[in-house]
Each structure stands twice: as structure tokens, then as C-alpha cells.
Fold:
Amino acid sequence: MIPVILTVVIIVVCFFLLIMYYDCNRFVTVEYEIESPKITKACSFVLLSDLHNKSFGEGNQKLIREIERLAPDGILVAGDMLTAYERKRKHQVAINLMQQIGEKYPVYYGMGNHEQRIGMEPGEFDNLYEIYMESLHRAGIEPLVNEKVSLPAANINICGLQIDRRYYQKFSKHPMPENYLSEMVGKASSGQFQILIAHNPEYFEEYAAWGADLTVSGHMHGGLMRLPCLGGVISPRLTLFPHYDGGKFEKDGPVMILSRGLGTHTLPIRIFNPGELVVIYLRPAHHKQ
Structure:
């Protein structure tokens, strides 16, 4: 009896290891369409999040080819394109990708907690933040660190939010004061379609209350492993079955698109949860495809 049980356990473990290897080394393209009367010109954006120095093919050519096929009007980056504590040589993966897409598309880069960490602790990370920011600058990318940029042709305003690190604490969610976002980035642009790049999705209600018509986020990695009906299993905050794990969420009109990310860190686990390349089509409300 014991050999039979052991054989079954080995088969199950091998099955999950194969799925994990497969899902850690592929990505799927996921599309969303959003309409708003505020939008005056149809446009599309590719959303990148949580690459964590992952390369799909040499020089990330698989990822770049798919972006080129989609031919977006711009790229939204929701942070964590690198991993703070990996060896320095691996950061060249993120740098190379940013330089290649920066040559071809407008890139609107919002910071994740890993970019934030290397910026706050330059001594620990050998001034990697300065090196990375300079590489983005050479690629024509100016990160939106609590800053906004306007796209008047489409009547769109894009804001990149960097929240305090206390909002990334483990185990419990730190409450966000009502006026916190306004103090960080000013008031939302009520007359324009407001896009907020906010790495941590757990504060979607606060983002919506601030005035974000569309929030784009990452950070959750899809919950590492996904189960039927239950969704993502664990969050970076080490809570089980997080509500915001990936996909599209709505709150009385405002929408959040939460990418399941592209890479991994610390625990290289993706089970029934491949990486995601997200494309968002924004349309005037009267537009019918």
C-alpha cells in the first residue's frame, strides 16, 4: 500500500513541477476594452508589470514581438520590472527591454516597490537606482513618480503613483487616510479620462474615490497558484485567497485592470498562472467596434 501511495505522490509532485516550469516560462496576451464619454480618440496601451528581470527568449524577443504585433499607442508600466536584491548583472534584462520599447513607443512608467526600495537604500544596492534611472532617461523614458502627464488628443491624463512603503507591509493592510492621494499627487483631472498607475491594487477603493477612471496595477503575481473557483492562492502580503488577484474590477464606474505580471521573485512559482501581457483598448463611449 505504501509504495502505491508514494508512487501517486511522486506523480502528483512531478505534474505540478512540470506545470510550474511551463507557466514560469510563458505568457499569454489578455485584452480589455473600456469605453468612456471622456475619451475623445480611440487608443490602445500595453500594460507591463512585474517582469522581475525575466526574459522570454534571448533579449526578451518573444515579448517584444508580441508588443509589436499589438502595435499599441503607448506602454503603461506598473512597476517591478527588476528585482531589488538579485545580482546586478540580472538588472540588465530590465534595462535592455526598457531601452528597446522606449525607442518605439511612448512609455509611462509607474514605480513598484522594488524600484522604490533601491531608490530608498542606495548604499545597499550600489547606486543601482541612479544607474537604472539613467538608462531609462537615455531610452527617452521619464518615470512618473507622483507626477502626471496629459494626452490632449485623446483627453487622457496619466498619473504615476508611488505610495509609502508602509502600504506594502506583511500580514495586515495599513489604512490609507482619505486625503493621502491628493497630498501625494494633487487632485484628479475630473474633465479628462484619468489613468492611475498604482502598483499595489489593494487600495483600489481609495484610488477610485480619488478620481481614477482607470487604475492599472500589478504586484499580486496572480496569487502564484490559481485554483478553479477560488482564484489566486496567496498575496505578497502573505494572506490567502486575495480578492484582488488579477483581472478586471469595477467600483461604481471606475475600473481597475490588474495584471498577473510576467515574472517571479523569491518563490519562482506559477501554477495554472502563466505570465500576462495585457492590452487595453480605450474607446469613446459612442464607439462601436
Summary: The longest strand covers residues 27-36. The chain has seven helices and 13 strands.
